[in-house]
Design brief:
The chain contains no helices and 38 strands. The chain is mainly β. A hairpin with a 6-residue loop joins strand 8 and strand 9.
């Protein structure tokens, strides 16, 4: 495999244009109904990739991608996208400086040149740093980077995948653990020059877990700090919810979970909702599924539990409802809930106007005995307009030995979507398909690949009409009889931003 000199990627996301808004009033003093806001492409996106598993037998692949459509149709100029090690301070590293000469410093990892064509790079995981970076112009709307590490032996062996995340100030991670068999690290990466100060809080079945050193963690500018969760509490707790809050600055945050017997994967933050939560993409051959839920607010939550199957929504036997006391963690073992069919879990308020905020995630196992492997599925936001996942391997046919499966869920009303497999990083032509999703179902797509594809490709989901749609992409392979896999959810890529239209010319001419 080819190697890159700098194997880590970081991505930072920011929105672009801000316009002034003037309030218009009628003669009676009532606000006038102005025109609806327009949605325009973002002009800058930022992402953060964590440090990969530091295994001597691990190998990491990075794939960067921006879907076609958006800013390039409006003639944006000055486009660029790339990732640098978190410790680098060169802005736009590796790109030309103002005098036309190449700037000093490291070359960016997986730099994109144009939308619609992914770029991939490979690297040994040992010693690889965290990455941060940004995309500008036509490469910003929908920019995504996938980090996938294959670890063939040792603690946490398996396929560890994560979509690099947008930095923020608050994250919830249901499904973490401080148990003796688990080695869970929260990776805190600061993409900015100024330092960030972060607090870590743990919650178990009885509420807050007293932490020894979780407050006031300093994350210097353009650096990463991994924290082993078991060092925060005196007693091991099997199922905990981790709350990450940045008091100052912003960070990227992901949990790397390594189990001594059950493999490992990345756990990303859960979406929170006072309505329904959707956890998409449970594999058909899942042998054990554990749901972990938490109610952060001041109200208890009573939830209906449903499984969206290929033919409709059903209630798992013995798990019709779930009660979550405010401030406490609830863990429920659902067993082999999918029973040979792909599925997605839907949690909804048991009563109208329930109103309690909830976060949740699934720990999913495949395999039996000593050949089990772990992945996590957090609750995810819907695809409002478009979402993409990069990093699918064009050389891996879907089937018993692995491949790519895209799971699409219409939890309420029926919906129509268009799914596109991009060109490969080494060549090929994109292929699109339009799908009708029935209400309350999960549709698994395992046969959509680019024509003549080589290298790695991306999958893009566009919602065309109908109800809400949630999506997840599963990568899998079999190594020495172990069914390794990783699941990435596809929330909306936030490739556009609402910009109010001017309803009246308020400019003033001055002589």
């Amino acid at each position: 495999m080819n190697r890159t000199a700098h194997p880590l990627i970081g991505v930072v996301a920011a929105l672009a244009a801000v316009t002034g808004v003037a309030a218009l009033t009628t003669p009676a003093g009532e606000p006038a109904a102005g025109p609806a806001a327009a949605r325009l492409p973002v002009e800058r996106s930022t992402l953060v990739c964590p440090q990969p598993a530091s295994s001597e037998v691990g190998e990491t692949t990075y794939t960067a991608y921006t879907p076609k459509g958006g800013a390039e149709r409006r003639g944006s100029a000055g486009s660029g996208a790339g990732l640098l090690p978190a410790g680098s301070t060169l802005e736009g590293g590796g790109r030309g400086s103002e005098d036309g000469k190449k700037a000093d410093g490291p070359d960016p990892v997986v730099p994109l040149e144009k939308p619609g064509v992914p770029v991939a790079a490979e690297a040994d995981s040992s010693g690889s740093p965290a990455l941060t970076g940004s995309a500008d112009g036509s490469l910003a709307p929908g920019w995504t980077v996938q980090q996938t590490t294959l670890v063939t032996a040792g603690t946490g062996r398996g396929l560890l995948g994560v979509s690099c995340t947008v930095p923020g100030t608050e994250f919830w991670f249901p499904g973490a653990s401080t148990a003796k068999s688990r080695h869970d690290y929260i990776h805190l990466t600061n993409p900015d020059d100024a330092p960030a100060v972060v607090d870590l809080e743990l919650y178990g079945k009885d509420g807050s877990v007293k932490t020894e050193s979780g407050e006031g963690i300093n994350v210097p500018g353009r650096s990463t700090v991994p924290v082993l969760l078991s060092t925060l509490s005196r007693e091991p707790v099997t199922n905990v919810v981790l709350h990450v809050v940045a008091r100052s600055g912003r960070i990227g945050a992901q949990v790397q979970s390594l189990d001594e017997k059950l493999g490992g994967d990345w756990l990303t933050a859960s979406a929170g909702s006072r309505g329904s939560l959707v956890l998409p993409g449970i594999p058909a051959d899942a042998t054990a599924v554990r749901l972990v839920a938490f109610a952060p607010g001041g109200k208890d939550a009573d939830l209906k539990v449903r499984l969206a199957t290929p033919t409709g929504a059903i209630t798992p036997a013995g798990q019709e409802t779930l009660h979550v006391r405010s401030g406490t963690t609830v863990a429920v073992d659902l067993g082999d809930v999918t029973r040979g069919e792909p599925g997605s879990l839907i949690l909804s308020p048991a009563e109208e106007g329930g109103g309690a905020r909830v976060v949740a995630a699934l720990r999913v196992l495949r395999g039996e005995g000593t050949r089990q492997e772990t992945a996590f599925i957090p609750a995810t936001a819907p695809v409002r307009e478009r979402a993409s996942a990069a990093g699918s391997d064009a050389g891996a046919e879907s089937g018993e030995d692995g491949g790519t499966v895209l799971s699409l869920v219409a939890p309420g009303k029926a919906a129509k979507v268009r799914v596109t497999a991009s060109a490969g990083s080494g060549g090929g032509e994109p292929v699109s398909r339009t799908l009708e999703l029935k209400a309350g179902t999960t549709t698994a797509v395992d046969d959509l690949r680019p024509e003549g594809a080589k290298g790695h490709y991306a999958l893009t989901v566009e919602r065309l009409s109908g109800g809400t749609v949630h999506a997840a992409r599963t990568l899998s392979l079999v190594d020495d009889g172990v069914p390794m896999f990783t699941v990435q959810t596809l929330p909306d890529d936030r490739g556009t931003v609402a910009v109010p239209r001017a309803g009246q010319d308020l400019s003033v001419l001055v002589d």
